[in-house]
Amino acid sequence: MITSEDRMVPNSLIRTQGYVNGKWVSAASGATFDVTNPATGEVIASVTDMDQSDVRQAIEAAHAAWPAFRDLTAKERSSMLKKWFALILENKDELARLMTMECGKVITESRGEVDYGASFIEWFAEEARRTYGDVIPANTRDKRLVTIKQSIGVVATITPWNFPLAMITRKVGPALAAGCPVIVKPPSETPLTALAVSELAEKAGFPPGVYNTITTSKNAEVGLELCENSKVRKLSFTGSTATGKLLMKQCASNLKKISLELGGNAPFIVFEDADLDAAVKGAMASKFRNSGQTCVCVNRLYVHDAVYNAFVEKLSKAVGALQVGNGLDAQSQIGPLINEKGLDKVKRHVADALAKGAHVHMGGHELEGLFFQPTILTDATADMIIAQDEVFGPVAPIFRFTDEQEVIRQANDTPYGLASYFYSKDINRCWRVAEALDYGMVGINEGMISTEVAPFGGVKESGIGREGSKYGMDYFTEIKYMCFGGM
Ligand code: SIN
Q1: Are strands 32-36 and 144-151 parallel, antiparallel or unpaired?
Q2: Residue nearest to atom 8 of ligand 1 (CA)
Q3: Sign (positive/negative) of CA torsion 422, 427, 433, 436?
Q4: Over the stretch 253-310, which tens digit does the pLDDT of each residue have?
Q5: Does the model's pTM come out above 0.90?
Q6: What pLDDT does 11 receive?
Q7: Which end of the chain is more exposed for a tag (fewer CB within 10 A), N or C?
Q8: Centre of ligand 1 from the C-alpha of residue 57, in Å
Q9: Best mutation site among 295, 392, 446, 469 for ligand 1, i.e. most ligand atoms within 8 A of its Cβ?
Q10: Domains along the sequence of the chain with CATH
């Protein structure tokens, strides 16, 4: 049960001003915007609403802080990151409550996100010290050729509401490790977690100007400044493909380096030789994580005709047991959708599927406020909107197939290419299908693939670049080639 204490806004980490050049500051205009709890509609806090002029100051501060920060030793930057990592874990419960209140995520998942988000900081604190260059065998006797990796410069990050903490740390962790000052622009739905994390960054000892957070509801204006200001040398964005394309166009004006982690349309294939219990477990983990609101959530379940009914029955049992409710209640497994727009999209996708011949096997309706029933749709087909566009909600459409080549073709028949999943016990098929799926990530007999140690990212219109892993630092450094002559 939720106690009245649970409902209270956690106090010690709450901040409502932006963090610029080592100071907590309000927008010059004095404007604010409200942050609401999607589970209740209550206003949690009013946060300062910064605009282009405020962002420019943050960019100037970050740019001024760059030379001294990049000149620190990797070990010095690593120590700050380790301290930040420890502070985040020390404040796990409070951060998780704040996150649940502003994005609706159920509390167990919010706690999991604090661990997940912190893991990127720890990982890149370690990677900071391994940013090696090369010694290249020279092309002539009198030369010596060397490469070094240098910090790229000021990094701007634009992050989404579905992972209010982890999408910041996955970008900022490697940036800081590489010696880049950062400007964090969280979404207007979830600025409080971002500000709480900034407070902990301040305590961790990052020098003024190195870590900046801009809160705003003026996404277009602030985004444009971050893209067009040439003192920002790199933009890292997670969000929709449409916004990613716009940002890329805007960054072209100064050829800014850009990393994009965009939308997906993840297929989940259950072959006739799959372990069905394992497949159900994987589908539940991936489809219903954050109430279906992640870019790697299963969007299309393809089930072989021979096991279709058995799979639907097993999945229905698991889905029927899901508890829907306010994320602060420890029993809840499915929270609200983020806003009306998100709810409308889910309703539109379901209505379109039903009009085109799908059947509601379970759920199918909205509940009070922004909640939607965990839903299974059977007899889904390729002409439905839900087959082409990620639903971003707790709806599982199940497609029927009979042939391996055909299901691979259908799985790849999308402009997106982020995550994909399949279940089979045949090792030959596992290699064959994994290689044939046109995606940046493939879960083989596994529904949970995200980790700091592996590269996260997509192909086609799902993005550019990889986050996390040993590759993650590369996007925040430039390779410099040095040729020593006259040796
Ligand atoms: C996302 O939905 O953008 C991120 C999901 C993840 O990191 O697992």
Answers
A1: unpaired
A2: 450
A3: positive
A4: 999 999 999 999 999 999 999 999 999 999 999 999 999 999 999 999 999 999 999 9
A5: yes
A6: 67
A7: N
A8: 31
A9: 295
A10: 4-262+462-482 (3.40.605.10), 266-451 (3.40.309.10)
